[in-house]
């Protein structure tokens, strides 16, 4: 989560594999706000949604 005025730049995100362990109703998430991300590799869950 970054500022609208000063967004994060050149953030590299790669090979993410997160698992939600909180019960049957939830799921892992990977949100981004005001980030100019460079995505590499595999992403579980989808990154920056």
TrEMBL record:
Domain of life: Eukaryota
Protein name (record): Uncharacterized protein
Originating species: Pistacia integerrima
